[in-house]
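Journal club side-thread
Mid-discussion, someone asked how the predicted structure for our own chain would compare to the paper's figures. Pasting it here so we can look after the session.
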Amino acid sequence: MFLLLSNDDGYLSPGLTLMADVLRKEVERLAIMAPDRNCSAASHCLTLSRPLSVYAHGQEVYSVDGTPADCVYLATSGYFDCIPDMVISGINRGANLGNDVIYSGTVAAAFEGRYLSMPAIAVSNISENPKYFADSALIIRDILRHILKYPLSKKIFLNINIPDLPYKDIKGFKITTLGHRGPALPAIEVQNPRGQKMFWVGRFSAAEKQHSSTDMAVVTDGYVSITPLQFNLTHYQQLEPIEHWLKGISHD
């Protein structure tokens, strides 16, 4: 297997480096192509206003002056001598649960791989200051070993969140649905040295009460959450009501 790793925290991120060190022993070839800086919350942004530069750092480690989605696009569109078989994005510092997946560059990097017809996994340690990144890497090793025995379909995209616990204290794996956070907290107003108003984007509010099958509930209980995701955002239950609603619009 030719395994591609990426992330949104940047190519020097400890989570990415630790995961690469562990997974290199499991596959025939491993390459890293990741942003040259932190791109958290970049979502699925592609750079269209300028060309992208790629920098080599040895051991098939490459940084790109672009977004996480840019990195996976380049890696799967001719930069290498062959197309990777699979992409894993992470290990992110901090959770990508529920609504987070809309904003996450980590998830977007994996999504780009799935969009380009390869199995893809996004991986996050739920702590913003992880103590057990290395243990999270071992969890991904276990999952990859299972994939090598029982390959995933090219249609599969998994969002995985791992509790920040020692390897031996992880209770197991559970398939989950996305949970839900409340609206973001208000923007934080500050002033620059010239007295002009500036604003920091507010943090997400605390998670609402979750059903036991959601990703947010499962990681709180000490399990690894695995959520299958898809591209189609169509709200099928609303098709008929909206069609009925449209009949009332006058089109003169």
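Post-session note: The mean pLDDT is 91.
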